[in-house]
């Protein structure tokens, strides 16, 4: 259930002008690590995202068990951050559980085009569901989109929407923003694990 508490207008947006996705800009992806000291890992880190996923770099296992998801209908607010649209959950209660640790769903946002690539293919859109523990540990669930002209019949809106709000939703947030996807980063010998449940493995044979 979504609540349009903010009109998606640039002058009402929570615009983050500290960085951008323009490769020619001094605030673009190759310079993120220079913008703030606490962002230095963007340039120097060896475990950066996104990455290119291939069958050769993925290890299949089933030891982690099922990913436990607990999502129910809840209120959220659309926020224009300038470089993307974010869904902020007003009273986080949905969560995922991984390896016995519970992560609360804090916010969701989109990247266009998708950031991660699979076997050389880049999808049209990528959805990030950002979860956190009280101590600040983060787990992000990413969903890749195949863009379609077909409307989604499952979205619901609480309250009313004016024609002006609809018009703003149907137009780009910033006309000079062509993409908000970070370039693929080096894998640096990291191991990518695919959690394939035993039942799913058996079904393949």
Automatic annotation (TrEMBL):
GO molecular function, one term: carbonate dehydratase activity
UniProt function note: Reversible hydration of carbon dioxide.
Family annotation (SUPFAM superfamilies): Carbonic anhydrase
Database matches in PANTHER family: CARBONIC ANHYDRASE, CARBONIC ANHYDRASE XA-RELATED
Known catalytic reactions: hydrogencarbonate + H(+) = CO2 + H2O
Major place of residence: plastid
Name listed for the protein in its UniProt record: Alpha-carbonic anhydrase domain-containing protein
